[in-house]
# Entry
Amino acid sequence: MSRATVEEFQKNAAGLLEAVERGEQFVIARGQKAVARLLPAEEDGVPDTEREEWTRAAMANLARAYCSDEPDYSAAAIIEPNPHYRP
# Structure
């Protein structure tokens, strides 16, 4: 595993990230303390069963937050409109 300082990474981030894409691993350190580790991404990082479990949990939470019999709210119910909202 290669080692680089934070300053080296800031000066040559693109070069270090290209090396990681080729399979190298880097520890980014400030002095002697490691602050980050760059590892090549795995093609199939999350097993399908785990991904399905996360999807089921997310859908269950959405269903709990927004039930099917929740009423539609009219624009008149808005107390303070968001000036940045763009439909």
